[in-house]
Amino acid sequence: MLNYCIRLSGIKDGNHEYSFVVNNQFFDAFEQSEITNAKFEVIIILKKEGKKMNLSFNIDGIITNFNCDLCASALEIPISTSLSIILQETENEMEDTDEILYIHPNQCEIDVSHLIFEVISLAIPSKREHNSESGVQCDKEMMVLLEQYAEKEEKIDPRWEVLNKLKDLKN
Ligand SMILES: [Zn+2]
Q1: What is the SS3 assignment for the chain?
Q2: What is the distance in A from the centroid of ligand 1 to the CA of 150?
Q3: For residue 71, what are the domain limits?
Q4: In this predicted model, what pLDDT tens digit does every residue of 111-170 receive, in sequence order?
Q5: What number is the average pLDDT over the span 16-40?
Q6: How many whole angstroms from 87 Cα to the centroid of ligand 1?
Q7: Domain tally, the chain
Q8: Ligand 1 center to residue 156 CA distance, Å?
Q9: pTM score, two decimals?
Q10: What is the Å distance from ligand 1's center to 151 Cα?
Q11: What is the CA radius of gyration of the chain?
């Protein structure tokens, strides 16, 4: 696993910028990942004002391992997303929320790999289809083939008819 840590202790007030590259190796580390082929650039700004800290994420990249839901051929999904989160110091065990990440007062760094993974995963569109907007159209030949295959599947296989008759005899 690569290092996706941001230093928290001993930093001055103001903005601190970090940049990370997220690639296939990163997604390999997450077993539940739907993404296996992708490349992202992640810019994180840590803003510190006394005890107040805030992380803002800017994530841009492209996923290349999905197939189109309509024509089943390869699809490129560009993703551009951002997130802002408050870092709150606490001595108590607290459950993180969408807006607040709890850290220990003496915590010297924070691993942001899970956050990056979550932000990217949430940005995957539910519809994975080619469209005219992106200038990439569906593969028409593939769609015809898929349709023919679906029609064949619908026709009743004669072997099933025999099985059904046997079942009837048993009853
Ligand atoms: Zn398509």
Answers
A1: CCCCEEECCCCCCEEEEEEEEECHHHHHCCCCCCCCCEEEEEEEEEEEECCEEEEEEEEEEEEEEEECCCCCCEEEEEEEEEEEEEEEECCCCCCCCCCEEEECCCCCEEECHHHHHHHHHHCCCCCCCCECCCCECCCHHHHHHHHHHHHHHHCCCHHHHHHHHHHHHHC
A2: 17
A3: 5-170
A4: 999 999 999 999 999 989 998 777 789 999 988 988 888 887 776 666 766 777 777 776
A5: 95
A6: 42
A7: 1
A8: 29
A9: 0.81
A10: 19
A11: 25
- Token pair of 92 as six digits: 């108590």
Residue 116 CA, ligand 1 centroid: distance in Å: 28
User: What's the farthest any 2 CA atoms get from each other in the chain?
Assistant: 84
Q: How far is the CA of 38 from the centre of ligand 1 (A)?
A: 19
* C-alpha of residue 90 to centroid of ligand 1, in Å: 49
Tens-digit pLDDT profile for residues 86-97:
999 998 888 888
